[in-house]
Amino acid sequence: MGVTVNAAQQLMCHDDESGDSDYATGEDEICGRDITGFSAAYYDGGTWQPRWDATQQAAQAGQLPKAIRIRLTIGRQKPETFETVVHVPAS
Known about the structure:
With 91 residues, the protein is an all-beta fold. Helix content is 0%, strand content 46%. The protein has no helices and seven strands. The strands form two sheets. Strands 5-4-6-7 form a four-stranded antiparallel beta sheet, with no helix packed on it. The protein has a three-stranded antiparallel beta sheet with strand order 1-2-3, with no helix packed on it. A hairpin with a 5-residue loop joins strand 1 and strand 2. It is globular, with a radius of gyration of 15 Å. The relative contact order is 0.19.
């Protein structure tokens, strides 16, 4: 499953189980509204990084982050921020 924020400030969830096993043909559905902030940071074992690139030519080539911090802010009048850290067991 993938998560994005669209231009209408809606949190969209993308289901990759489309029957043909092709992520690109999965379905999008709204899983949150009035999203005013979304960020992710990646822990390399020493510091939090603003992005992670595990492609062959990148600094993190072939590696997974130790953890991912996800921060989501909802609402404009009285915004609420939610944060969670997901530990990546295979890293």
